[in-house]
């Protein structure tokens, strides 16, 4: 078997066997197949696609390239969720405790932000002392003892996927739906969850801008889950405007804390309850997602979800005093509103512009490994459909650099579109795929 023959076969729109995929990926992972051949293969996949069977085989080979966790050695059933990334998407910080408080263990391996999409680990590190580098043994012990874990990916988890993604990032092949799906699902399968809720974001502030493409990706990931013996449901959710009010690491942690006290923005609260409801149904705790939503709402209202969040942060080394007094979390030097220059109905609040502006302030990173400023970010005061008077606050900017602060105030006005006539509010979700 030769790498060049596999490249040619995919170039000519042939369907690769599992043996060919395994030979190619394992050869790349151990250094026997060079980057330039893998780049050519990835471009052939981008242009010609893969069948669901090929993509499932690729996913499993990527997952099996390193350590494979098995959460069932710790708990009978463990669920996970994955978001394809968005602006103001701090849902894991609320959804995990909601679900775990209902008695369903949640073992989650999360990532960091890249580009204008925020990362859960960066948010969590706003809390002094909080660890996100648990070992496999610590992961399983914590899942067994308290039923909730939130940590980063180890180097041994799907290492071939990490190498392939780094190559795709510099060869113009990131956009391939089979390669996106296999990358996401290989980490979920290697992470050991028995059921996975997929929150596929759609819109200006998401990786997938188009609803049809997002639907295609969601269906493929659900098929992969089924083909690998996991249960999965995908939600297509709106990311044309930021979710909730806060965009930025410490700001989003504060908003998560407010929400876990049964407060916080209504859109974010509802989004979390819907996602939690589907997870509880996936894990067999309830008969359907609506029952799950009701159970999650009870855990929110009776304080058990808040208690579970405090347990999670405490066991991972975080300073609990910052949860009880969130005003002690990092605070920016400059905090000022951006005011409206006119009156009217908001017809558009561009999530990508808001996200990019937050990154420019220092809340995210343009390149992997760059430091971030946990204090800075943006509060989004008004959403699509709101009527705004002239001089009302549209955003509140949190900055530690005066020049960045001034630039952010100008950029944010470009995120808005206006209407003289009333405008319908945006939906939270478009579709459920199972």
If you had to describe this structure to a student in words, what would you say it looks like?
- The protein has helices spanning 3-11, 18-29, 35-48, 52-63, 92-101, 120-124, 136-146, 159-169, 177-190, 211-227, 249-260, 266-282, 289-301, 304-315, 321-324, 351-361, 402-413; strands at 79-83, 106-110, 148-152, 195-202, 231-238, 246-247, 334-339, 344-349, 377-380, 387-388, 393-399, 416-419, 429-433.
- Helix 10 links the parallel strand 4 (195-202) and strand 5 (231-238).
- The two termini are 37 Å apart.
- It is globular and about 70 Å long.
- The model has no long low-confidence stretch (mean pLDDT 94).
- The protein is an alpha/beta fold and 434 residues long.
- The strands form 4 sheets. A 4-stranded mixed β-sheet has the order 1-4-5-13, with helices on both faces. It has a 4-stranded antiparallel β-sheet with strand order 6-9-11-7, sandwiched between helices. A 3-stranded antiparallel β-sheet has the order 10-8-12, with no helix packed on it.
- 54% of the residues are buried.
- It folds into 3 domains: 3-49, Up-down Bundle (Transferase, Pyrimidine Nucleoside Phosphorylase, Chain A, domain 3); 71-324, Nucleoside phosphorylase/phosphoribosyltransferase catalytic domain (Pyrimidine Nucleoside Phosphorylase, Chain A, domain 2); 331-419, Aldehyde Oxidoreductase, domain 3, CATH 3.90.1170.30.
- Helix content is 45%, strand content 15%.
- It contains 17 helices and 13 strands.
- Helix 1 (3-11) packs parallel to helix 3 (35-48), helix 2 packs parallel to helix 4 and helix 9 packs across helix 10 (211-227).
């Amino acid at each position: 078997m030769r790498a060049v023959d596999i490249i040619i076969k995919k170039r000519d729109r042939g369907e690769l066997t599992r043996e060919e995929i395994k030979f190619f990926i394992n050869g790349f992972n151990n250094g026997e197949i060079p980057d330039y051949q893998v780049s050519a293969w990835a471009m052939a996949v981008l242009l010609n696609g893969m069948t669901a069977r090929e993509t499932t085989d690729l996913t499993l080979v990527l997952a099996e390239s390193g350590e494979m966790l098995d959460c069932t050695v710790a708990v009978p059933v463990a669920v996970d969720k994955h978001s394809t990334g968005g602006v103001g998407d701090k849902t894991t910080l609320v959804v995990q405790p909601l679900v775990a408080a209902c008695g369903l263990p949640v073992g989650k391996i999360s990532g960091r932000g890249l580009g204008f999409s925020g990362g859960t680990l960066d948010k969590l590190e706003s809390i002094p002392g909080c660890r996100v580098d648990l070992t496999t043994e610590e992961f399983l012990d914590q899942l067994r003892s308290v039923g909730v874990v939130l940590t980063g990916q180890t180097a041994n988890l799907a290492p071939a996927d990490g190498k392939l993604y780094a190559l795709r990032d510099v060869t113009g092949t990131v956009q391939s739906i089979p390669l996106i799906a296999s990358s996401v699902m290989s980490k979920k399968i290697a992470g050991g969850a028995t059921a996975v809720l997929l929150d596929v974001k759609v819109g200006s502030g998401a990786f997938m801008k188009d609803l049809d493409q997002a639907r295609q990706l969601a269906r493929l990931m659900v098929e992969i889950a089924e083909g690998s013996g996991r249960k999965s449901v995908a939600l297509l959710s709106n990311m044309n405007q930021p979710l909730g009010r806060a965009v930025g690491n410490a700001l989003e942690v504060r908003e998560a804390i407010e929400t876990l006290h049964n407060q916080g923005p209504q859109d974010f609260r509802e989004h979390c309850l819907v996602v939690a409801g589907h997870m509880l149904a996936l894990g067999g705790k309830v008969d359907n997602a609506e029952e799950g939503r009701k159970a999650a709402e009870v855990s929110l209202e009776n304080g058990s979800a808040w208690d579970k969040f405090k347990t999670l942060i405490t066991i991972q080394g975080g300073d609990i005093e910052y949860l009880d007094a969130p005003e002690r979390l990092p605070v920016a030097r400059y905090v000022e509103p951006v005011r409206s220059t006119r009156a009217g109905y908001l017809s558009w609040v561009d999530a990508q512009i808001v996200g990019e502006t937050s990154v420019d302030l220092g809340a995210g990173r343009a390149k992997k490994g760059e430091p971030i400023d946990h204090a800075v970010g943006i509060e989004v005061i008004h959403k699509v459909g709101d009527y705004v008077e002239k001089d009302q606050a549209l955003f509140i900017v949190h900055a530690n650099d005066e020049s960045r602060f001034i630039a952010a105030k100008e950029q944010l006005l470009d995120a808005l579109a206006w209407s003289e006539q009333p405008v319908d509010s945006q939906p939270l979700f478009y579709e459920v795929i199972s």
